Amino acid sequence: MVQHHDHHGHDHDPPAPMRFGPAFAVGAALNIGLVAAQVVFGIAANSMALLADAAHNAGDVLALLLAWGAVVLGRRQPTARRTYGWGRSTIIAALANAVVLLIGVGAIALEAAERLLSPSPVAGATVIWVAGAGIVVNGLTAALFVRGHEDLNIRATFQHMAGDAAISAGVVLAAVAIVLTGRLWIDPLVSLAIAALITVTTWGVLRDAVNLAMDGVPSSIAQHEVEAWLRDLPGVVEVHDLHIWGLSTTEAALTAHLVRDEQADDQELIRVASHGLGARFHIGHATLQIETPVVAESCRLRPADVV
């Protein structure tokens, strides 16, 4: 006999994502104000650097709104058309956030390389004050998302804002050094160093986001541990067709075929397995198919290389 059972371990699901709505609203408002100030002062000081940074921070506003929208969509209830809801929007937002940040860093690195070859004058005082405002705005925005890093979407937002604060800090230090020494090559050199640092710190978020987008096992779950635990359950003699993937940046799902011995109780096995998957591995959506050894022999999904 083959039994299918879909169990959602509500008592042991991962904790609900923190409410970051106010944080997104405040962060977006701060960054919109920063963009406006940079445009005004950039035009007044005839500074292309400030106008370029304004365009970059406009991208920050877009990233914040994208991440915020994904959180809102992720709370929508499942429908007949989208049976798992809109949780994957948080994965898309995290991926887009990381990509946008890396594109921005690439643009900065390209500009820095050009200026390293052909240094140009820097309006020191104006740049220091406006970049200082960038430190405050991006630093405060990053602080709003310092918690909740188990959610990849929130972690991507935090790293994006923290990275921009670091860029602004580098701009201030470079501008001060240029004012004191007159050496124009300091600005692009500092920019290249910061770009390299942000690339390294962002790469992990990009890797995890791509993994989830491709239905990979979430980085917080070790598939071999889950398989070993299921195989060690009383009455289980084999586990095959095991799949684990992310429904969102905070929720995971699992499907598996459990081959049980003739004396095992199907309902008890399902209860214990579903409870343990939620409690031990935070897998709240488990679909388990129970098979006898005879049925397993004819299961076309038994080989490990079959999807």
Q: What would your notes on this structure say?
A:
The protein is 62% helix and 11% strand. The chain has 307 residues and is α+β, with helices and mostly antiparallel strands. It has 2 domains: 17-213, Alpha-lytic protease prodomain-like, CATH 1.20.1510.10; 218-297, Cation efflux protein, cytoplasmic domain (Alpha-Beta Plaits, 2-Layer Sandwich), CATH 3.30.70. It has a 4-stranded mixed beta sheet with strand order 1-4-3-2. Strand 3, helix 8 (266-281) and strand 4 form a beta-alpha-beta unit. The chain is elongated.
Shape: elongated
Please give the count of helices: 9
What class would the helix/strand composition place it in? alpha+beta
Q: What is the CA-based Rg, rounded?
A: 25 Å
Helicity, as a percent range:
55-70%
How many distinct folded domains?
Answer: 2
Largest sheet: 4 strands, mixed
| The CATH fourth-level homologous superfamily of the largest domain | Cation efflux protein transmembrane domain
**Extended strand count:** 4
CATH top-level class of the largest domain: Mainly Alpha
CATH topology of the largest domain: Alpha-lytic protease prodomain-like
Share of β-strand residues: 5-15%
For the record, give the distance between the C-alpha atoms at the N and C termini, rounded to a whole number. 22 Å
What is the architecture of the largest domain at the second tier of CATH? Answer: Up-down Bundle
| Helix/strand order | EHHHHHHHEEHEH
Low-confidence stretches: 1-17
Average of the residue pLDDT scores: 83
